[in-house]
Amino acid sequence: MSALFIASDHAGFILKERLKEYLNKNGLAIKDLGTYSKERCDYPEYAYGLAKAVASGKNNRGVLICKSGIGNSIVANKVPGVRAALCYNLKAAKLSRQHNDSNVLVLGSAFVRTDLAKRMVPAWLNTQFLGGRHLRRVKLINSIEKKIRRGAK
After folding, report:
1. pLDDT tier for residue 151 given thresholds of 50, 70 and 90
2. In angstroms, what is the C-alpha Rg of the chain?
3. What pLDDT does 20 receive?
4. What is the pLDDT of residues 53-81, one digit of tens each?
5. Degrees to nearest 5, angle at CA 48 with 75 and 133
């Protein structure tokens, strides 16, 4: 992974900025895809931009932040190749990597405080996909995605 993509809407801006600072201090390269202020904005634009960036490369990963995380999850998972996981705790973040090979971690700033986010993101980044029976399921997800793209039922 060359750099971690990160994006938020206005409701996730403060958490994004705090996370960026923390992750940069700990040697992680961050590519901020916006928003760049607390001014009200439309989260789908930022979620889509990050999801496209993640989908553009094999080992890309990203973090999306909005108030609940729900909207960002919906948008990101529309992009082929993205497996976005909305997580509100450390265990879910780790399981999303181990079982689902998630490549986007979605956080809700109304539910995940800065101290927890500072633990979740590194844990998510450092957790490996287990493969095995989980690989079979991820491949099923990928085949469903391909069928949808081809217009098959």
Report:
1. confident
2. 15
3. 97
4. 999 998 899 999 999 999 999 999 999 99
5. 60
Selected catalytic residue, list 10, 41, 99, 134 = 99
Catalytic residue among 10, 66, 87, 134: 66
Question: Rounded to whole angstroms, how far apart are CA atoms 8 and 80?
Answer: 20
Judged by DSSP in three states, 31 sits in strand
Strand ordering across the sheet containing 61-66 = 30-32, 4-8, 61-66, 104-108, 84-86
Annotation marks residue 87 as catalytic = no
Q: For residue 79, what are its two tokens?
A: 């992009």
pLDDT at 2 over 90: no
Ordered by where they begin, the domains of the chain are: 4-150 (3.40.1400.10)
pLDDT of 22 higher than 70:
yes
- Whole-number Å distance between alpha carbons of 1 and 11: 27
pTM of the model: 0.96
